[in-house]
Specification:
The protein is mostly helical. The chain is built from nine helices and no strands. It has two domains: about 80 residues, Rna Polymerase Sigma Factor, Chain: A (Orthogonal Bundle), CATH 1.10.1740.10; about 60 residues, Arc Repressor Mutant, subunit A.
Length: about 180
């Protein structure tokens, strides 16, 4: 079956476990960072299956090249994000990725055209897009970057050149506004 509880270590404990090549280090690394790194990768490649493969490749590279990580040069997460980004960017530059993207775009256009002729209503999305459109522009922008594009709060702050606290406030206010409508 596998384990059910996620492992969480402090950064120094995690670094030590990875340096020692302890199994708990690999498990904690995955539990603590897989969703964030997946978001970074997916945002670049825009393809779930490829992003999942690249996530595994990222963890292998992190594990195998951990001796090159230097705590004095930055946080562990920043180092790992750079590895994930580089792997994803390398993939998008590869010839097989560009060719598969061209084929996929044609398939997506066909599915999109077919979808336009279906008249079924989806109650889960009914009105949601319009509701989000009614948010203040600054709230909508932050909500879009965090929930639809996978940015971290810090990345949103850097992207929009605003303080981290402002990002969190705008996101919280957007959620409060949406919650009022749904409750």
């Amino acid at each position: 079956m596998g384990r059910k509880t996620k492992i969480s270590l402090t950064e120094p404990e995690l670094i030590q476990a990875i340096q020692n090549k302890d199994k708990i280090g690999a498990e904690a690394l995955y539990d603590m960072y897989s969703s964030s790194l997946y978001g970074v990768i997916y945002r670049i490649v825009l393809h779930e299956e490829i992003a999942e493969d690249l996530l595994q490749e990222t963890f292998i590279r992190i594990w195998n090249s951990f001796s090159s990580y230097d705590t004095s040069r930055g946080k562990l997460f920043t180092w790992m994000v750079n590895i994930a980004r580089n792997i994803a960017i390398d993939k998008t530059r590869s010839k097989d990725f560009r060719n598969s993207s061209k084929t996929e775009n044609i398939e997506n256009n066909v599915l999109s055209i077919e979808g336009n002729f279906q008249s079924e209503m989806n109650p889960e999305t009914l009105g949601l897009k319009e509701l989000v459109e009614k948010l203040k522009p600054d709230q909508k922008m932050v909500l879009d970057l965090v929930y639809y594009k996978g940015y971290t709060h810090v990345e949103v702050a850097e992207q929009l050149e605003i303080p981290l606290g402002t990002v969190k406030t705008r996101l919280r206010n957007a959620i409060i506004t949406l919650r009022k409508v749904f409750n």
